Model the fold of this input.
Amino acid sequence: MQLNVTHRTNAERLEKHNRELETALAKKTEEHKEQAKALLLLQDDMLANQIQLNVLEQKTEALQQENETLVQRLVAKAAADADKMNDANAFLER
Done:
């Protein structure tokens, strides 16, 4: 009789431990799912930021090229104006 009670007690203890392990596993599984969701959100954000960065870099490059073109045009106009002024001064000096 004592042996039967001991087996029952051991079985109950093992069943309780098994339930605790199942609960812990379920909790860890849920945590893993939440972390996976968070990781996906971070990856999506990172991708969106990378796309924005690429767009901004392209705009920056275009603006730098436009600026260079405008500076060249301004320098050319200033040189043309200076040439005209020099020609006018030369004409007046005759």
In short: The two ends are 137 Å apart (CA to CA).
